[in-house]
Amino acid sequence: MIRRFYRDELTELEQELLRMGALVEDQIRASVRSLTEQNLALAKKVIAEDDRVDHMEMDIEQRCLTLFALEQPLAGDLRTVSTALKIITDLERMADHATDIARITLRLEHEPLIKPLVDIPEMGRLASSMVRLALNAYVHRSLEEAATMIRLDDDVDHLYAAIFRDLLEIMRDRPDTVGQATHLLFVANYLERIADHATNIGEWVIYIVTGERRK
Amino acid sequence: MIRRFYRDELTELEQELLRMGALVEDQIRASVRSLTEQNLALAKKVIAEDDRVDHMEMDIEQRCLTLFALEQPLAGDLRTVSTALKIITDLERMADHATDIARITLRLEHEPLIKPLVDIPEMGRLASSMVRLALNAYVHRSLEEAATMIRLDDDVDHLYAAIFRDLLEIMRDRPDTVGQATHLLFVANYLERIADHATNIGEWVIYIVTGERRK
């Protein structure tokens, strides 16, 4: 009976984690869209929703601690619970970066974009896909899916380097753009970090399956 | 006898965590010094030492998981072990940012600094002090020390804003500086994040003492 309760708890923990992941993925997409469309209402929504992400993190944290305290999870289950505790930190940081991006949308409120954004939305799509793929790999406990996802991080890094070069050139040619261009550089930096956090989740999946930690 | 073993394990866990914290504090100071003195050897040392930080994190992680698995820590001890698991993530991220700064030192190898750095080293001193204060608050389980440390984050934020304004002005006046100035902006951003991670640790101390999570 107690074991039954325990299995239910583990299932619920996993579902909560996936709900948090889906919200974070939405937040990333919405933040990039708010920037490219200069949609202030959407940016404000992203900032407001961050509280929900924080609450979900704390709720899942509490579930994990309760599971540790009331049960004595063994080997595989222990890894599931302790990695959940780590994965939510990565998810929460991603959501923080989404709000960082939304705040930049608000800052650029009164100025037209210095160029139509192409690479940044592309990077945003890649980064948010990585989050979904990482969570799929987690649900399926799939090494292959984790490895495929982690490889996408190289594409993100290439895009980041291209955006960096591009924006530096624009700033050199048109010094009046440095304010906005700097903010766009930070957006690219935040997206690169989001992809890094997705990679972390992939590494946690590898740990759950193999018991091996690698970085 | 088992309980005795368990207390020793908790003490050792705490000491390992403090050793990791001291190393991370050194890494932060060294990274900023490598930049201001354009000391490439020091920058390379910081980058090389990051592996040690990663290993310490994984080692402490393993200790925590073993403690969860073999013992059934109750209330206060449970909080100690589970927050150790969170604090090491913050410490590891700080060290990552120190290596980010050291990499920027290497990138600027062939160019003189566009200005003598004053605010950045000041920000570095503040951020690394926050790390030490956060760990002291942790050792003493002191709410007061945690709160004092967290208040320093405002000073860091003010310095960050000042550095940002300053560098944007330099870029506007001297477009040839945008490459380096952008890198310096990122350095300031990394230091601001390091201070945020120190603040996280302060919040974990508050949780250990009160059982209340706040952000």
Beta fraction of the residues of chain A? under 5%
CATH superfamily of chain A: Phosphate transport system protein phou homolog 2, domain 2
Shape of chain A: elongated
Say how many strands of chain A there are. 0
Report the largest inter-chain contact.
Answer: A-B, 31 and 31 residues
Q: What composes the largest sheet of chain A?
A: none
- Whole-number average pLDDT of chain A? 91
Query: What is the level-2 CATH architecture name of chain A?
Result: Up-down Bundle
Q: What oligomeric state do these chains adopt?
A: homodimer
SSE order of chain A, as H and E?
A: HHHHHH
Model regions low in confidence, pLDDT < 50 over at least 5 residues of chain A: none
CATH fold label of chain A: Methane Monooxygenase Hydroxylase, Chain G, domain 1
User: What is the terminal separation of chain A in angstroms?
Assistant: 39 Å
Rg of chain A from C-alpha positions?
19 Å
Total number of distinct structural domains of chain A = 1
By secondary-structure content and strand pairing, the structural class of chain A works out as mainly alpha
State the name of the first-level CATH class of chain A: Mainly Alpha
User: What proportion of the residues of chain A is helical, as a percent range?
Assistant: over 70%
